[in-house]
Amino acid sequence: MTHNDELPPVEALQAVLSAYRLGSFSAAAAALGITHGAVSRRVAATERWAGFRLFGRHGRGVRATLDGERFAARIELAMAMLHDSRGTGRSDHGLDTVRVGVVQSFARLWLTPRLAALEGTPPDLRIEMEIDNAHMALSDARIAIRLGRGGWPNVVSEPLFDEGLQPFACQKIAVELGPDPAARDLLRYPLIHDASEAGWRRWLTAQDLVYHPKGSDRTFGGHDLALIAAASGMGVALARKPYGSEQHERLGLVSVHPAVVDNVERFHIVTRSGARHGAIERLIQRLQSQARQSQA
User: Fold this and answer.
1) Which phi and psi angles does 171 have, rounded to 5°?
2) pLDDT tens-digit readout, 140-185
3) Regarding the domain delimited by 10-84, which CATH topology (the fold level of the hierarchy) does it fall under?
């Protein structure tokens, strides 16, 4: 490929990012309100400028090449910096605005109920949530909250709170199990997973049991959905305490076994390396304070 020194237009970079995030030119076209052919042309123009292929075919969609992964990450960061360059996060309301990238379940179960406290009394911050299932680009006015073991490269990650895994179910299943069921008794019911089987595998291993997947087991793409499924009687879910504790109490879920096993993953506040804006420092302090209160 030949390299063209003239920068690709923003529309072309947006097409690349959309295809990268969605894994499909068709999905990118729908998201951007343009045709599949327009996405293909914009990606091709960007590839000509970059001098390498950004995507390869993958099933019915596309997958970024290694070069494409690096390129997309740099575009995300550049877009974030451009977006934030309109001011240090200040907008019409006169407050410092911090954008927080979170998965949807965390936004629903933990962040939104604490939004007023996090913004201050009287408010001196404005928090704007960006629902994002991948590591969003970080900047002077953007942070992320992510679940994992921490230690991600090229960023600073600070744990929020530890989690304990404990089986919960609806009242009907709790009555059927009786007041003091053995751990193996829970396996008579479908096990509900939130995104992966890792939690149940860990909990059962701690009870000297081995997890064997059943056809009736279900996986949901978020802890909030797993709790709702358990409340509707679909099976037994692992409550992640204190994360989601308020929700399982609202749903009427009850503990069906006393054993609590540490979750090896935790939510982390993720920021870019280097000096941080005062607004981000204030928000981090408040997040940590709210996390301590939720664990008390």
Assistant:
1) -60, -40
2) 678 899 988 888 888 899 999 999 999 999 999 999 999 999 999 9
3) Arc Repressor Mutant, subunit A (1.10.10)
